[in-house]
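Exercise 3.2. Students should predict the tertiary structure of the chain below and write it as C-alpha cells, then compare their answer with the key that follows.

Predict this chain's 3D structure.
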Amino acid sequence: MVNPLQIGWIDYSNEHRNKVMAILDLLAQKGAVDELGIGMIRDGFADMFFPGTSTLQTRAKYFFIVPYLVMELEKESFSSHNQFLNKLSQQELELIDILKQGEDLDGIIGGRSGKKLKRKPSSIYWNGLRKFEIFKYENLTLDNYAKSVFAMKRNKQALKSLGDEETDDIDAMNIMGLSGTV
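Answer key:
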C-alpha cells in the first residue's frame, strides 16, 4: 500500500501560515478529473445521442440570441476580425444586465459572475448553432467566422470603390451562412 504524499511545516506567524495555505490552495485541482481517461468516449456518445448540445447549454434562448448578435455585428464596420470578436464579447457582457431585469439568475449565463464571465454564450452555443444548421457552415469556428466576415466586408468595400453598384444588394448574412430562420 502506497501512502499519499503528506506535507508538514512549522509556522511561526499567521503571515507565514497564510502564505503556505495560499500556495496549497493554488495546487488543489478544482473541477472534474478524468482519471480513467474515458471522457473522450463519453463525449463521443453524447455527441451521437444528443448532437449539438452540452451540459453547459442550459437555455434554448441563446440559440436565438447569439445569431441575432452576430447578424447585427455583420452590419457594422470593423478594422480587424479581433475587433469584431471583442465587440461580440462586449455585447454578451451587456446582455447579462439586460436579462437580469426579467428573470432569476439561474437562467442567465454570467448571472452570478457578471462582467468577470470567462466563457461567453457564443463559445458555449457555437457548436449547437452549427449542428442544428442555424449556422450553415459546420466546420467554421467562431474565430474563422469573424475572419470571414471581416474579409467579406473588406472585399465589398473594395468593389464599391471600383464602382460596382451590385454590391449594395449583397446580403452578408446569406453569404456567411446564417439561415433565414432567425
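Discussion points: Residues 96 and 113 are 10 Å apart (CA to CA). The radius of gyration is 23 Å.
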